[in-house]
Amino acid sequence: MTYNSYVSALESSVDLVTSGYVSHVDTAEEDGTSNDADDLDDDDDSDQDVDIDPVFDEESKGVQLFSGLLCCFGLLFLPIRIPLPLDVCEFFVLGAALQNNLADVQIDISIVERLIAEVERSHRHKEEVILSYEKKLTELSAKIKKVEAERDKFVMEAESKKTDKKIREEYERKLADMRSEFRKLQMVQKEHARMQVCNIIASVVVYHLQARQERERQELVRYQSELKELKRVKVDLMKKIKEEMKRAQQEHRENVKRLAFMDKEARRRENTIRQLENKDRQREQFMKRTSEEIRRLRKAQKEQAKQVHPSATSRMAPHRVMPLRSARTPFIKGQAPPEVAFSPKQAKMKWSFIERKVLYCDSSLLITV
């Protein structure tokens, strides 16, 4: 349904309601306000000559105000599609849409508030006018009844005394004036009844507008709270991302330091292994030289034992033990070295010295490892 069709439907419904209400008021007033119903029915043709320009002015103002209210009502009741939040990642688009919708709704709210104030002011004015016209109607109806009573009294007196017809004509003229004024007031009352119906409908419309305005305010508050919550979530996520980045950078630096330390330790261990291998190789070479020297000494001892007489060697062995270093004699270069006497004690001491040295080398290697 378009906007024009919506407004036309509302206006037609208002006309139907007001016409029914006015017809009901007409029947009620014609049945109980005057004692001379036949005279009022005969003078219906003279109603068109009544001056009702003020009534039409009031009607045009009321219709203009009511049409403006209906236009605003139709504009506000047009469907406003507000996008709902679907995911946290879309809160930027949602925030922009909410801000635009917030501006539009605030403009509509200000317009509706002005219209509501104008309707309330006109409603108060109409109630005052209705009260004044009702007061005048009651006074006129009382005057009409009083004049009719006087007329009936004078008619009875005239019939009894056969007075002049001028008195009757004068009273008839007064009654006609009062009836015309009474009809004017009835028309004004009808118009005010119609405006009262319009005011009732307008009050219903205003009530619906206020309810819609309250719902929209609640939705705006909810959307604003959701937007604040999304902003807070965004800030928390940014903080968490920064903390994760800092933690990752710290872990990266620690890993780099750990890798550098491990490389350094690996190089140190490789150097230690090479040093141990060199020491092991030196020890093996030393042991090899030592074993060769021991074999050479044993071989020399055996040869010397063969050369010496067994009895002499058996006598000299326990008493004379000369050290190998002291048994050496200086010799001239180019001459053969003199034969050195073998000493078992000296060989045993030398062997124990070699063993201690080997044990010392092993313990030093273990300590370094």
From TrEMBL:
Is Ribonucleoprotein there in the keyword field? no
Give the GO terms filed under biological process for this record. microtubule-based movement; mitotic spindle organization; spindle elongation
Q: Which GO terms describe its molecular function?
A: microtubule motor activity
| The keyword Phosphoprotein appears for this protein | no
The UniProt keyword set, sorted, is:
Coiled coil
Look up the coiled coil feature and give its residue ranges.
Answer: 130-188, 213-307
Annotated region (Disordered) at 27-50
UniProt GO cellular component terms: microtubule associated complex
Q: Which InterPro entries match?
A: Kinesin-like_fam
**What Pfam family is a match, any one?**
KIF21A_4th
Where do transmembrane segments lie in this chain? none
Composition-biased stretches (Acidic residues): 28-50
Q: What is this protein called?
A: Coiled-coil domain-containing protein 113
Species in which this protein is naturally found: Angiostrongylus cantonensis
Q: What is the lineage of its organism?
A: Eukaryota, Metazoa, Ecdysozoa, Nematoda, Chromadorea
